[in-house]
Amino acid sequence: MISRTAEYALRAIVYLADQEGKALTTQQIAEATRVPAGYLSKVLQALGRAGLVVSQRGLHGGFTLGSEPDQISVLTVINAVDPIQRIRRCPLGVQSHGEKLCPLHHRLDSAMEMVEQAFGETTVAELLNDPSQLRPLCDCRKE
């Protein structure tokens, strides 16, 4: 449904949100979220360009969230690193279809639209405050 890059970005954002403003290094985030540090570094750069994380250099440097968790939607995080691809024209290149989608591709695009809507309506804060007994990332604890 979403790419590995988007999954890694969500893990990082949720983990940073759970740390309540504590600046964390790429290595600390990578270990807690089980994301390869080299890959995570690139993901954090993309999140930084989108303003979702802020990097601080120096002795107590690291990454923090760029906004409050209730202001960050899941869709915003995904779109920052690897946007959901909607079907705008026939993926098979059938010229007679043009901009009009066949029933199959129309249904697939409608499903992607519903996913986008659900992700757009879900904030990082909601993920952290879900009433289930499970915490996001399961065994990640505040450091």
Give an overview in words.
This protein has 143 residues and is mainly alpha-helical. It has a domain at 4-83 and 123-128: Arc Repressor Mutant, subunit A (Orthogonal Bundle), CATH 1.10.10.10. The protein contains six helices and two strands. Strands 1-2 form a two-stranded antiparallel sheet. Strand 1 and strand 2 form a beta hairpin. The longest helix has 18 residues, at 103-120. The relative contact order is 0.19. The mean pLDDT is 89.
SSE layout:
Blueprint: H1 4-18, H2 26-33, H3 37-49, E1 53-56, E2 62-65, H4 74-81, H5 103-120, H6 124-128
Antiparallel strand pairs: 1-2
Protein structure class = mainly alpha
Helical fraction: 40-55%
Across the major sheet, the strand order is: 1-2
Low-confidence region ranges: none
Name given to the CATH homologous superfamily of the domain at 4-83 and 123-128: Winged helix-like DNA-binding domain superfamily/Winged helix DNA-binding domain
**SSE ordering:** HHHEEHHH
Whole-angstrom Rg = 18 Å
Shape: elongated
Which range does the strand content fall in?
5-15%
CATH names the topology of the domain at 4-83 and 123-128 as Arc Repressor Mutant, subunit A
CATH architectural name of the domain at 4-83 and 123-128: Orthogonal Bundle
Q: What characterizes the major β-sheet? A: 2 strands, antiparallel
